[in-house]
Each structure stands twice: as structure tokens, then as C-alpha cells.
Write a structure and sequence with these properties.
- With 330 residues, this protein is α/β, with parallel strands linked by helices.
- The protein has helices spanning 2-22, 24-28, 53-65, 83-95, 112-120, 148-162, 178-193, 209-222, 234-247, 266-273, 288-299, 322-326, and strands spanning 41-47, 72-78, 100-103, 125-128, 142-145, 166-172, 197-204, 228-231, 258-263, 279-282, 307-309, 314-316.
- The chain binds beta-D-fucofuranose (GYE).
């Protein structure tokens, strides 16, 4: 009898163990020392592109973090701002049986099927920078990035301190990306609250300098009575500045049209110190060490935070200092 009980006990224990490791969560959190034949942890990284200074700093941060010396093999694929390239990259990572997939998604929607494939393959997915919308929250283990709506609200709070009546020109980032959605949402809330504010022209410049210039040229052809340009990243602001220079329209913190920008990259802050950009809201791209921390937690079988926002600040042309720019890591 005793023998039977203990045999039953062993079987039950084995069953519980098997069901724990076979569960969906177990698949997404290996908790093992997954590594390639050289003993390196293989990380497949699908990057949006190289559209901006922010993006290039983000790529650099990932490359500097995931080095062979530190025990990683980084496979980086640049999607040139195309979601279909990202989907293909993720499928390739699955085939290569990488240990982790890091995705910086170009847009929020459209990831369900490919992430399901990663989940079935048992490869944990970490989302970095922009967010995704999925039908199943277990398609990714963790996300780290910025609170884009808060960034928009920060810019709007500055506008509210400064202006009552406003004609606003709005250059948006990639439509459908979290950075665009949040920053646009922040502005929309400001316009809703302030009866004297009007958005007079709006278009998307895909976060690039070339498009920022093109759009600003067109705006100026249509409408010259603009008080504020709300520009959703530094590079598009650089393009807009070129167009303003060529169109000979006064702008800057000392008089004329005011430019608000996002990212606060070193080049963006130079333009802020020069008083060309009046207000620049920080967006921090140095996610490499943050993603590494998540991977290290997973390696130890720990559960990282599902969502982690980065702390950010903002810089005004009236208060920024040379020291702040020189201390900037990107
Ligand atoms: O603001 C922009 C880049 O997703 C936060 O993408 C990122 C944005 C950033 O191209 O410069």
C-alpha cells in the first residue's frame, strides 16, 4: 500500500512538473541558459530603420551592449521602415532558433500571427521603443520604451504657459507608430482644452529630415500665418528649419514662428541652444542596457516587468546650457 502511495506521489509530482514546463508561460520564459554552440546568447534584433538621429543612437546602444565579449551574438536586421521586412526578419530569427527576439516595431498593429509563431517556437520576444497592440498579451514577455502621450502633454503644457491664441502646423511621424500616436494625442488634448488653438495644416513626414523639409515647404506655400510648428521629431524639425530659411520666414525663440520638437538628440539640442527650436522634449534611445537587464532576468528564470517607462525631461531655448549638450550621450 505504502509503495502504491509513494509511486502515485512520484507520478503526480512528475505530472505537475511536466504541466508547469509545458505551459504557455513556460515557453515564453525559458529560464534556461539558452545559448549557441559558441556558448553565446543569440539575440535577433529587428530594427525599424535608420530614419533619424534617435534611431541611430538606439542601434548604437544595442550594438554596444550585445557584444561577443559580453557573451552575446547580435543579429541585427534593418527593416527600412517597412513592417513586412520586420515580419520576414522575425521568421528568419525563428528559423535560426535565436534565444531572444527584440522587436522595435514600426507600427502598433499587425503583429499577432508572427508573434504567435515565435511563441510556438518558444522564443521570448522583447518589445523595445514603440508599443504593439496584440490580441494576446503573452505574445511578448516585456516592453521598454517611452511614454509618448506624456511627451506630447509636456510640450502642450509649455505651449499653454506661453500662448493663448495659436495657429499650429503639425508634422507627424509615421502614422500608426506609438511615437506618432502618443505625441499627436497629447496635442489633440491641448487643442480640445484651448478654444484659441487651431491646427491649420498637418501631414506626416515619416520622421525623416527630407520629408520634414518637403512638408514645411508645402505648408508655407499654403499658409504663412503659423505661430507654432509642432514637429514630432528632431530630424523633421531640421528639414523644416531648412525650408524656413529658404522661404525667409522668421522663426525661433527670439521672434517669429516657434518650433517644438521631440527627441532632444545632441543635434536637436544644438538647434535649441541656437534658439531655432524653442522647446525640445526628450525621448531616450539608450535601451541597450535596459533590454540586456530583461534578458539577464529571463536567463535566471525571473519574470521581468511587463511594461517599463523611461524617465524623460524637456529643454527650453531660454534655459538650456552648453554643459547639458556636452554631457549628452546621444
Ligand atoms: O522619436 C524618432 C524615430 O520611436 C521614439 O522614432 C521613436 C521615434 C523617434 O524615428 O526620431
Amino acid at each position: 500500500m505504502n509503495k502504491h502511495i509513494s509511486l502515485f506521489g512520484v507520478l503526480l509530482f512528475a505530472f505537475i512538473l511536466a504541466s508547469c514546463s509545458g505551459g504557455d508561460d513556460g515557453k515564453n520564459r525559458p529560464g534556461n541558459k539558452a545559448e549557441n554552440t559558441d556558448g553565446l546568447i543569440v539575440v535577433g534584433f529587428s530594427q525599424v530603420g535608420a530614419e533619424s538621429d534617435w534611431r541611430r543612437a538606439n542601434t548604437r546602444s544595442m550594438r554596444e551592449t550585445f557584444t561577443r565579449e559580453k557573451g552575446y551574438q547580435l543579429i541585427l536586421k534593418d527593416a527600412q521602415q517597412k513592417q513586412e521586412h520586420q515580419v520576414a526578419a522575425i521568421r528568419d530569427f525563428i528559423q535560426k532558433k535565436v534565444n531572444y527576439i527584440v522587436l522595435a516595431p514600426v507600427t502598433e498593429q499587425g503583429w499577432d500571427s508572427v508573434l504567435k509563431e515565435a511563441k510556438i517556437a518558444g522564443i521570448p520576444v522583447i518589445i523595445m521603443d514603440r508599443m504593439i497592440r496584440t490580441s494576446d498579451n503573452t505574445f511578448f514577455v516585456s516592453w521598454v520604451g517611452s511614454d509618448f502621450r506624456k511627451e506630447g502633454a509636456t510640450a502642450v503644457a509649455w505651449m499653454e504657459k506661453t500662448f493663448k491664441n495659436l495657429n499650429i502646423a503639425h508634422i507627424q511621424g509615421n502614422i500608426g507608430s506609438s511615437a506618432q500616436i502618443g505625441r499627436t494625442e497629447g496635442l489633440r488634448e491641448g487643442v480640445d482644452r484651448n478654444p484659441g488653438w487651431r491646427i491649420v495644416v498637418r501631414d506626416s513626414g515619416d520622421f525623416t529630415q527630407v520629408k520634414g523639409k518637403e512638408i514645411m515647404e508645402r505648408f508655407l506655400g499654403e499658409y504663412r500665418d503659423i505661430d507654432v510648428l509642432y514637429c514630432e521629431n528632431d530630424n523633421m524639425a531640421f528639414g523644416a528649419i531648412q525650408a524656413l530659411d529658404e522661404g525667409r520666414l522668421p522663426y525661433g525663440a527670439s521672434g517669429g514662428l516657434k518650433i517644438i520638437s521631440f527627441d532632444a538628440t545632441r543635434a536637436g539640442l544644438e538647434q535649441t541652444l541656437a534658439r531655432n527650436i524653442s522647446y525640445n522634449v526628450e525621448c531616450n534611445p539608450l535601451h541597450g542596457p535596459r533590454v540586456e537587464k530583461i534578458i539577464q532576468q529571463l536567463q535566471l528564470g525571473k519574470t521581468p516587468n511587463k511594461i517599463a517607462y523611461v524617465d524623460e525631461t524637456a529643454f527650453s531655448a531660454d534655459t538650456i546650457t552648453r554643459e547639458e549638450i556636452d554631457a549628452r550621450a546621444y
